[in-house]
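Q: I have two molecules that I believe assemble together. Could you output structure tokens for the complex as a whole instead of separate predictions?
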Amino acid sequence: MIRIEHLQKKFGNSEVLKDINFKVEKNDVVVIIGPSGSGKSTLLRCVAKLENATSGDIFFNDTKMTEEDHKLCELKGKLGMVFQHFNLFPNLTVLQNVTLAPILVKKIDKKEAGKDAKYLLDLVGLKEKADAYPHSLSGGQKQRVAIARSLAMHPQLMLFDEPTSALDPEMVGEVLQVMKKLANEGMTMIIVTHEMGFARQVSDRVLFMDGGHIVEENTPDELFDHPVHQRTQDFLAKVLV
Amino acid sequence: MTSFNFQLVIDYLPYFFKGIIYTIGFSIASIVLGTVLGLLIALGKMLPNKLLAAPFKGYVGLFRGTPLLVQILVINFGVVPLILGKSNSIVAGILALSLNSSAYIAEIFRSGIQAVSEGQGEAAATLGLTPNQTMLHIILPQAVKIILPPLGNEFISLIKDSSLASVISAPEVTYWAQAMNAQYYRVWEPYLTSGLIYLILTLSISSILHSVERRLSVND
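A: Yes, here they are, computed for all two components at once.
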């Protein structure tokens, strides 16, 4: 579904991503872990086309996303993204946040979109908040609305950029629960996270990144229990206390 | 102050009322035109293509960098006769005030649009919204809320600046105050009365904007 070949990303003179290669197949759940500044988020943002790659190619269902004139809005939400800071639209209610893109982009009629949105809000456990504004929600609730908002476009792939990093510890569980539900339903996902326990439970493969490289890639059990590289061992020793 | 003659003011009230109609007319027309034009110029200034953005930058520089009084004179005696064949103080007044305020309002809009967090545009783009849809449905509604206080300042300035149209004999409040001064050789009555009229107008618009601000901040 996603194929990345020799991806390189530079900001000015600093090379943030160096020769990244990997593939994600349909129904895969891939988790990317690694220290801050290792390029995890930049990689995700390149896949989402929020950053333009300096060189190399990203294919999404054989569409070359790295083509200069390829615009993000042409994907029409097929590639959903959930952000660390939620980025809900504060001027719209929860329901409007979820229905906006289906109505504007997919031209679905308002009633239909509303029905679908209610179903999705129910899925993330927030049906009763449909008419609330984002400011009245907790962080965990905001993130669950953001997930519902992405799902409303029925994406083929969901990208999660540290979805629980900005949350109070108490709120982390409710968001991970929703993501687990999605994984079990066969959603294809790439997740950047620091939640190692969650990574292990939910993923088919784990990528460990450091210094702009993918250092190690393996099944979660292998990577967490028998890390091959010294750098991976050091990192895991520090985070898995 | 040699005893303020209220009777004189009352006698002259019909003219002041005429002036108020023109002052309000000038202000409303220029606020509406200046805001619409200001938004378009702000969007033009933010075009990614530097060459396309240049004329909009030049426009803002020109109208902010020259005195409004000079603009009024040039437009009344130069531009309007060129277009209409004769000078027309009302058209010239509205045109000058709108063009001038639009330069300031453009900068206010730009600051508001840029103050909306980048994440908003990113979220909208990943959902498949086009840049235009994002601007219209996500960025502008949030920007308007941010810029309401500075926009209010600009509207108040505009109401007061409409008094400059008196130099081209547009029959607004200051024009009639000067006429009253000339007719009765009185200073306090005409000018204090005109000052009070402007004060009432500016206080009214600021209270209107205040209530709009309160209504919009409900979702904060």
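A: One point stands out. Chain B is about 80% helix and 0% strand.
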